[in-house]
Design a protein that fits this description.
disordered C terminus; 1 helix; single chain; mainly beta; 2 domains; 3-stranded antiparallel sheet; 15-stranded mixed sheet; Jelly Rolls
Length: 293
């Protein structure tokens, strides 16, 4: 398997190496396609799961979905997910300057590892939202709303800014009026449910990748994106410690993967164990919000 450079968000090492899929020409970076279902176009070109690992959205390019969904990498440990009939523009794809505009539809961002050096901003209807903490965020220009399921964000419109914490949303067309919302209200939303499933599979890919590093005693270049051929997508592997997604799934570094509870095994296509969906011991529910334990 060819080895090429990929990015690390840690402050001590600016680069890592990541295994790339056969034929891949692009290292993992913000804007990389990581999963796709249904009708999705990048800059007018149809993409499918066969393009994962080679396709990306570059500065100024547009992503459009019809009856389809897509997941993109932002900074390591941060994922952008688009629902049906959604259109975004990727404005900047730097590790310290990551910007996008949600033009139509609905987008979620899952942030499992947001560092101070990262500067992720999302534009909706003229407002700018800066993510400030690990969590789960919804952007919906048709509502028009920015909502924080977990985490913290600052929303700026013209000369006014508001801070949003867990369970708060802002109307970005009416002077940034804020209100509480029930974070369980999206439980039946298709994009929310799909995001929960994607978070589960990403955690599974991470644990497999971390165990592979331990067993092979090779292929470890620090935390970042690693190509997982069994899942045909990039896995985020932390450099150390254990981190949790807003859905409660655990992401383990090779130094902590031994802590995955016994009684669970990892197979191609996901976890298998005694418990069902959202009940895996390998990813216990969080206490006190997302982030590192």
């Amino acid at each position: 398997m060819k080895v090429t450079k990929s990015w690390l968000s840690g402050i001590f090492a600016p680069l890592i190496l990541a295994a790339m899929p056969l034929g891949a020409a692009i290292p993992a970076h913000p804007g990389m396609l990581n999963y796709v279902e249904g009708q999705v176009r990048i800059n007018g070109q149809v993409v499918t799961n066969r393009d994962v690992g080679t396709a990306d959205v570059r500065d100024g390019q547009i992503v459009e979905t019809g009856q389809g969904r897509a997941e993109f990498l932002l900074t390591p440990g941060v994922f952008l997910r688009l629902g049906d009939n959604t259109r975004i523009q990727m404005d900047a794809t730097g590790l310290t300057d990551t910007r996008l505009t949600v033009l139509e539809g609905k987008a979620f961002i899952e942030a499992d590892y947001l560092r101070p050096e990262n500067n992720i901003r999302v534009m909706v209807n003229g407002s700018v939202t800066r993510l400030e903490k690990n969590g789960m965020y919804r952007f919906e220009p048709g509502a028009p709303q920015v909502a924080v399921f977990d985490g913290r964000a600052q929303v700026t419109e013209n000369d006014r800014s508001v801070d949003l914490g867990k369970g708060r949303e802002a109307n970005v067309d009416h002077g940034l009026q804020t209100a509480k919302f029930d974070t369980r209200s999206d439980a039946n939303d298709p994009l929310y449910q799909w995001s929960a499933v994607r978070s589960q599979y990403l955690a599974a890919a991470d644990i497999q990748q971390a165990r592979t590093v331990v067993v092979n005693n090779a292929g470890w270049y620090g935390g970042g994106w690693y190509w997982n051929p069994w899942y045909a997508m990039y896995a985020w592997v932390p450099g150390n410690g254990i981190y949790y997604s807003p859905f409660g799934w655990g992401f383990y570094s090779p130094f902590t993967v031994w802590a995955v509870p016994a009684g669970y095994f990892h197979g191609i296509g996901g976890y298998h164990g005694y418990a069902g969906y959202r009940g895996f011991a390998a990813a216990p529910r969080m206490r006190g919000g997302s982030g590192r334990r």
